[in-house]
Design brief:
single chain; 491 residues; alpha/beta; Rossmann fold; 12 strands; disordered N terminus; binds iron/sulfur cluster; iron-sulfur; L-lactate dehydrogenase complex protein LldF; 4Fe-4S
Amino acid sequence: MSNPNPLGTTTATFVGMPKFPTMAKDALANTRQRRNLLHATHTIRAKRAAVVDEVPEWQDLRRNGADTKDEVLANLEQYLVQLEQKLTEQGATVHWARDAEEANRIVLDLVKAQGVDEVVKVKSMATQEIELNEALEAAGIHAWETDLAELIVQLGDDRSSHILVPAIHRGRAEIREIFRTRMGQVGRPAPDNMTDEPRELAEAARLHLREKFLRAKVAISGANFAVADTGTLVVLESEGNGRMCLTLPETLISVVGIEKVLPKWEDLGTFMQLLPRSSTGERMNPYTTMWTGPAADDGPQNVHVVLVDNGRTHVLADPVGRQALRCIRCSACLNVCPVYERAGGHAYGSVYPGPIGAVLTPQLRGTSSAIDQSLPYASSLCGACYEVCPVRIDIPTLLVKLRTQVVDEHRDGRPSVEARAMKAAAWMFSDSSHLTKAQKAATLGSKLLGKRTALGAIPGPAAAWSGARDVPVPPKETFRQWWDRTNGGNE
Ligand code: SF4
């Protein structure tokens, strides 16, 4: 039915990735990536700060956004039923998917029913989350990403590393090389004389994608919002690729997380102000497309909406953790995070990187794997993410809560070195006589070390910790001994 894809799978997957510290260590050694990330995040964060400062009622807008999302989450069942009813009335077909497998199967059946072996896609994090491209690929259907950054990631056989700018870790020269070597394998090649000027790179992508847009019979999209009282789906994007996907093909399949619902059409007013300023640092969004089922003789005539749970109701069940479902994927928290800025998005092992990934992913996937257990620790807890979040998600509190959960889950097994050290500290501080004994032992040890001021690397379980620090030797006498010897410092 189809030609093999010369690129192999369309995107690399995150399955089985090692824990965050391991991935971050590799990323830290990549100086070019760190330089790209530093430049990009600082540019976007400065733009965001400037346009947010222009809005005197910004804090009221944030509160309004958070309240609206909380209202949706508290009554999600009712709003979803309303959304389905409205979409159906307008001629769309609604499908429900409990998990990734079910969602992929539904989409695959819909695509197969059209008898095609390729689809175009407008950026959709939900489809990345369920690894739809890989599922389509396995069935011989090529899924072509049409967002410029997603195209770079796909052609480079890479993974997204940012919510909004998936190829943020790539420089212009790298992008030119990817286009030059890979575009011709899957469609129109890049022009021979293409330089790494952004305008020329964008032009190459435009020409390459145009062929795919004009040929495609089926498009797959996500949605930023789904309005319950009108049955309207909304996509915001900056390049116009979304509009091509959403209007040219005959069949449009939208894969939407169930938390994307807004109660009323009027609610869009708040979010259309919050999202562009928080994400791209723009006052308004360049391309906003809204559709409510198929339109007579215009645009896609088969409109399908797949509403995906995939762990969201599990997150919803936690009254504190559920606030992560307010997220509108603006990426502001990534751009201010000192950990993300250095480690980059791949280290988070999920389509959702940065601070929101560190709290959303372990809730969606659970904390059974090494990477998901490590994510709540991928933060300095500085609170910058909370300050910029347009829907006031208290990410630091969620991180602490998830850390507690991870620690609690390991209480029954063999205690960790850290747990044993904490237990010893608790014993020492619980009684002054214990503390005195410990201090005496420490000062005796100190005398044996002579004139040394710092311990070298400590062998055993503390080796990794002490290998990166100068651990000072304990003082030769305790404060109490000094107090007694000097008569309170008077001698
Ligand atoms: S958590 Fe807040 S700041 Fe981060 S992506 Fe989501 S909405 Fe944006």
